[in-house]
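Here is the promised in-class demo. Please do not try to memorize the tokens; focus on the logic of going from shape to residues.
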């Protein structure tokens, strides 16, 4: 059986490419294990030159941008540093924010307790995320998040701080998975032996990307992947809004 391509080219020109990445694929080579599948290596077999502008987490699906020459790389990197590249994410979360819309302004630092993770800390780097409640079910919600800064795991940490950890994000307080039986038990008050997982990864999707480049405004979007769509449909079916 032919394996599904883990990425889709949304747009390309001589200066950059925009990719819709599947969940489960690293953006760039792993520091400790270069044999792990990653988007950069996959694309390098198709493009003569490729430059990393930013990255998204392995489990996160959605839009990512690569430059195709040194000049474009420099300009796009400057846009990121100047916060002129706008990114928007959709997350399916546990619970819902008490205030439907606002800004999370909490500094983020590397965790001293667990390597590779981040944490809210007063001596951390400034971090700001705009958020808005999109849909609310009884025990879950969909939240739109727009990072103003670009700290590692920023959205995951900030939504956890908001007491709305992302489904599948065990590192920051989310349940490992949500299954059909979880929803039916809530609805019908009966235990069902149907452990089929609706989603078993961090339910975060980079849905929009926009920026100015050489006198022109660009804007791209990527629809929710199938696993997140299925999750939402089941929420609509079994849980009251």
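The designed amino acids, position by position:
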């Amino acid at each position: 059986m032919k394996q599904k391509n883990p990425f889709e080219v949304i747009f390309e020109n001589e200066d950059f490419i925009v990719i819709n990445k599947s969940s489960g694929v690293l953006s760039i080579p792993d520091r400790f294990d270069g044999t792990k599948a990653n988007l950069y290596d996959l694309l390098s077999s198709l493009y003569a030159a490729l430059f990393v502008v930013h990255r998204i987490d392995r489990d996160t699906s959605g839009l990512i941008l690569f430059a195709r020459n040194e000049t474009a790389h420099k300009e796009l990197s400057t846009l990121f540093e100047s916060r002129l590249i706008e990114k928007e994410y959709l997350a399916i979360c546990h619970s819902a924010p008490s205030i439907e819309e606002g800004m999370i302004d909490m500094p983020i630092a590397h965790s001293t307790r667990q390597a590779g993770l981040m944490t809210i800390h007063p001596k951390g780097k400034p971090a700001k995320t705009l958020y808005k409640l999109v849909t609310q079910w009884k025990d879950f919600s969909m939240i739109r998040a727009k990072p103003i800064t670009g700290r590692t795991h920023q959205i995951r940490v900030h939504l956890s701080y908001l007491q709305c950890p992302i489904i599948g994000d065990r590192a920051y307080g989310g349940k490992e998975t949500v299954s059909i039986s979880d929803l039916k038990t809530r609805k019908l008050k009966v235990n069902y032996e149907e452990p089929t997982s609706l989603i078993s990864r961090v339910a975060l999707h980079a849905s929009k990307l926009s920026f100015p480049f050489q006198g022109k405004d660009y804007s791209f979007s990527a629809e929710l992947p199938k696993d997140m769509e299925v999750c939402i449909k089941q929420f609509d079916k079994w849980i009251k809004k």
